[in-house]
Design a protein that fits this description.
Length: 660
């Protein structure tokens, strides 16, 4: 946008909307449409309107009006681990502000966004500390004018607090909305909760995500409370919702056309319980005994005998060993429904035709001969007994996931104590259950992105690392944690994310657990970020060059953060996009702080020479407060500070700068 030679913009008093580029205007329209959909979803029922149920609470109007301002994410190299080896992220900061900031990179759509979001929010049991709006009896107009003076409170919410449900809803509603915007159109959200807030969470999910997008509610039976006065409630719930079930159904159809999922018509399926444990024991026995099948069989027999009563592996029929692996030879060779082909199949020892199954052979004769040649048919002691079919454990059929999970919570306690030491964390989740669910809802996609806004002890990261180790996947986790101020935690908020969340991930990656035993290492790493001050118009204009470069590289389209695109050692260039286009900032220190922040012809010529030397592509994206250089779409795109940045952040009308 050209300006007069004296640096004054001819549109300095025009509305900000008139100063947007076409791309920025399109993004604003999309955001406004999204906010309109939210407002419609949360609009009050008219007096003469529908008779459907709706969740009303004090603070609903504030939730509709409040704009969450993003924050700057600063990389902390000293807290990161092997950042050059992995793209995982751990972010220390308020999850609502951080999720809002992540929209710049992960805003959901058909081809971009988060695949799975797992939430383990405060259960509101009377022992939780969580943030909530401290004044929620406001109209939309009051919220807009007083947004800076009524902030968020944070305190212990007790069971006898008459407003505890309202506070919890005011905590959850904006976070669920941010989560929805982050999810890919085929994405899934999984939320753990117990009976204290299940009814309100369910209604929030129906309003924000839509009743038609509900997938299932799982019941996880974790323990038995023998001291219960009436009935032991040792379970909790996991609510599963889709961002858009219609898109998920379409993806199911696409998966049905793939070889891996065609036999189950693209439906979500999982390996039968106990299979992984058997395969692990088999691989250990094979490593120990080599090709000695008798010794491997004896080791596997001992494994099955040593399993505790009720272990799911005891129900698996694949208990025999041959050179191919673990197998069962009780497969049915009957033609389904009857009327199958009838022909002579000679017994390899007696040379006589084997007894034909009652319903006929399951294969035509040519295919049966191929199965015999591949060692798939188990002949019995003589021809008077019908042969059986051989199936191997590693190709075992899948099964549907039922809505009830039975797994003792003590297992997850033992894992966290082995990693971090005894008493390190209360009530951890089970990383193996999370891994199973993540694989289930993504069709075992090896490139899925999984976000956990309530990271806690880092269970989600442990699950993702285990999944990648199992199948060589490239899944990514993004964890957000700001610390736990609940009574008895024993660690300050400032240290919590580093010494609990990130420390568990460090130990799992390096194999250096607290128990001192030998554990597998993972060839990956993570970046650690810390959320800094909010991004506002005043903050932008008061920024140092380095700080403003951080903000621009965080918000620039097609880029994620400074790790990916930052360039050092240049006067104007601060980075390059993934497509190779340069990013430049005109923000030089001067006595009056004015003219050296404007793009002039001389600066443009020097900047373009710098771009050529740095081998970045044109047009270069140039950020400055004004522009007096000749316009040229082929050479550069001009982005005015601060309006362009504010527009990308969705905060066009920064309230602190409005005149009284």
């Amino acid at each position: 946008m050209a300006t007069k030679k004296n640096g004054a913009s001819p549109r300095s008093h025009s509305p900000v909307i008139e100063q947007l580029t076409r791309a920025e205007l399109v993004q604003q329209i999309e955001d406004l449409r999204e906010e309109l959909r939210m407002s419609l979803a949360f609009s009050k029922i008219a007096d003469s309107g529908a008779n459907d149920a709706i969740l009303q609470w004090r603070g609903r109007n504030r939730f509709l009006a409040e704009k969450i301002v993003p924050v700057r994410l600063k990389p902390i190299a000293s807290e990161s681990l092997f950042p050059e080896k992995g793209v995982h992220r751990i972010i220390d900061g308020d999850n609502l502000a951080v999720m809002t900031s992540l929209l710049m990179e992960f805003r959901g759509g058909p081809t971009r966004g988060i695949d799975v979001i797992y939430m383990d929010p405060p259960y509101n049991t009377g022992e939780d500390v969580f943030s909530f709006n401290d004044d929620y009896s406001l109209s939309k107009t009051e919220v807009k004018s007083l947004r800076r003076t009524v902030g968020r409170a944070e305190s212990l919410v007790s069971l006898d607090d008459p407003t505890r449900h309202t506070k919890w809803i005011n905590h959850m509603a904006p976070r669920l909305w941010a989560a929805k915007k982050l999810l890919k159109s085929t994405g899934i959200i999984i939320i753990s909760i117990d009976e204290h807030e299940l009814p309100r969470l369910w209604m929030l999910m129906e309003e924000i995500f839509g009743e038609k997008n509900r997938i299932a509610t799982l019941v996880w039976e974790r323990s038995r409370k023998n001291d219960a006065a009436y009935i032991s409630e040792g379970h909790e719930y996991m609510l599963i919702w889709a961002r858009n079930k219609a898109d998920l159904d379409a993806k199911k159809g696409q998966m049905a056309a793939t070889p891996e999922w065609s036999n189950v018509v693209g439906r979500w399926r999982k390996p039968k319980d106990g299979v992984d444990e058997i395969l692990t024991a088999y691989m250990e026995a094979k490593e120990l005994f080599g090709e000695n099948l008798d010794s491997i069989q004896k080791a596997m027999n001992a494994f099955f005998v040593g399993l505790p009563a009720g272990h799911p592996a005891k129900k698996v029929r694949y208990k025999k060993v041959n050179e191919r692996g673990m197998y069962t030879d009780d497969g049915d060779l009957n033609w389904p429904g009857g009327g199958g082909p009838r022909y002579d199949l000679l017994h390899p020892v007696t040379g006589k035709p084997c007894k034909i199954p009652t319903l006929g052979w399951v294969y035509q004769e040519e295919e049966m001969m191929r199965q015999v040649a591949e060692g798939r048919v188990a002949f019995k002691k003589d021809h008077t007994i019908v042969p059986r079919y051989i199936r191997y454990l590693d190709e075992m059929e899948l099964e549907v996931r039922t809505s009830v999970l039975s797994r003792a919570g003590q297992r997850s306690v033992e894992v966290i104590e082995a990693v971090l030491g005894k008493g390190s964390f209360k009530n951890p989740k089970d990383h193996e259950i999370l891994a199973e669910l993540f694989n289930l809802v993504t069709w075992r996609n090896k490139d899925s992105i999984i976000l956990d806004p309530y990271a806690g002890s880092g269970t989600t990261a442990h699950a993702v690392l285990a999944m990648n180790a199992e199948d060589g996947g490239n899944r990514r986790f993004v964890l957000i944690e700001r610390g736990d101020l609940s009574p008895g935690v024993g660690i300050s908020r400032e240290k919590y994310t580093s010494e609990i969340t990130a420390e568990r991930v460090r130990r799992v990656i390096t194999g250096k657990w607290a128990d001192g035993k030998k554990h597998a290492k993972h060839k990956t790493g993570f970046h650690f970020f810390r959320a800094h001050e909010q991004i506002t118009k005043s903050a932008i204009m008061a920024s140092t060059r380095e700080t403003l470069a951080d903000i621009i590289l965080q918000v620039v389209e097609d880029e994620s953060n400074r790790i990916d695109c930052r360039m050092e050692g240049h006067r104007y260039l601060i980075g390059r996009t993934r497509l190779g286009y340069g990013i430049a900032l005109i923000w030089q220190a001067s006595k009056n702080g004015k003219y050296d922040q404007v793009l002039t012809l001389n600066i443009l010529e020097a900047l373009l020479d710098e771009a050529d030397q740095a081998n970045v592509s044109k047009p270069v994206h140039i950020y400055a407060t004004g522009n007096t250089a000749p316009l040229s779409d082929d050479l550069y795109h001009f982005h005015q500070i601060p309006n362009s940045i504010l527009a990308r952040l969705g905060i066009l009308d920064s309230e602190e700068d409005n005149p009284e």
